[in-house]
């Protein structure tokens, strides 16, 4: 049976938003866990991930309330926000999949130069020093830098080995969720135009 009835559309939209709630809680929990165990020292990265999680949680809450109450205003607002997120996420995902090696290197170097906390995290995690060359007289969070003589490699060569795979993975995940978002927009639009069988048959809510 095709899911075209009021109850089926309501349940499908509710299930989709419950999925978004779980994903948002996972993002918030993962960011808090990484900060608590000092896996990521950059406050901006942690705050950004938590901010995305909270935003997704609010959008899912609006969609869930709109679905359960068949609230026209909430469903319309949910459609607009979700469609905007879809456009941005679809564009970023396609950009991640389309980047070539030179563009990847330029973006990595820009990100490296913007945050010293990120540099320390990468050096500590990958056991490397510097981006294109190991600093002769400087600080480095990698354990290899403490050896005599230092036996560290530049971080760019290590990052570039996995940057393409990571971008393809992120782009693929982004594309998958962008299609769930357009599905949510379609379900919300369809559900708004359905009559509630429990209400007055002559009323259109």
Strand content: under 5%
Q: Which word captures the global form?
A: elongated
Averaging pLDDT over every residue, what do you get? Answer: 80
Kindly provide the radius of gyration, computed on alpha-carbon positions and rounded to a whole number of angstroms: 23 Å
Put simply, the count of helices is 6
Low-confidence stretches: none
The tally of beta strands, per DSSP, is 0
Query: Which range best describes the helical content: under 10%, 10-25%, 25-40%, 40-55%, 55-70% or over 70%?
Result: over 70%
What structural category characterises the helix and strand content? mainly alpha
> Span between N and C termini?
25 Å
Give the SSE order as H and E letters: HHHHHH
Outline the biggest β-sheet.
none
Please tell me about this protein's structure.
The protein has helices at residues 6-36, 43-69, 72-98, 101-114, 116-126, 155-192. The protein has 205 residues and is mainly α. The chain is elongated, with a radius of gyration of 23 Å. The model has no long low-confidence stretch (mean pLDDT 80).
Keywords:
single chain; 205 residues; mainly alpha
Per-chain topology:
Elements: H1 6-36, H2 43-69, H3 72-98, H4 101-114, H5 116-126, H6 155-192
Helix pairs in contact: 1-2, 1-6, 2-3, 3-6, 4-6
Summarize the structure.
With 205 residues, this protein is mainly α.
């Amino acid at each position: 049976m095709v899911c075209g009835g009021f109850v089926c559309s309501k349940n499908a939209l509710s299930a989709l938003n419950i999925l978004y709630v779980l994903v948002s809680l996972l993002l918030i929990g993962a960011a808090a866990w990484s900060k608590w165990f000092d896996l990521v020292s950059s406050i901006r990265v942690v705050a950004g991930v938590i901010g995305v999680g909270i935003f997704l949680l609010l959008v899912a809450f609006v969609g869930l309330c709109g679905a359960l109450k068949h609230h026209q205003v909430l469903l319309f607002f949910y459609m607009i926000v979700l469609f905007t997120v879809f456009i941005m996420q679809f564009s970023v995902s396609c950009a991640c999949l389309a980047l070539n090696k030179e563009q990847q290197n330029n973006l990595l170097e820009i990100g490296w130069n913007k945050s010293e906390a990120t540099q320390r995290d990468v050096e500590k995690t990958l056991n490397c020093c510097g981006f294109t060359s190991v600093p002769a007289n400087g600080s480095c969070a990698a354990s290899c830098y403490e050896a005599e003589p230092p036996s560290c490699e530049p971080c760019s060569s290590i990052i570039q080995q996995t940057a393409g795979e990571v971008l393809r993975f992120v782009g693929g995940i982004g594309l998958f969720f962008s299609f769930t978002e357009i599905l949510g927009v379609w379900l919300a639009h369809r559900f708004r135009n359905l009559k509630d069988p429990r209400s007055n048959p002559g009323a259109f809510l």
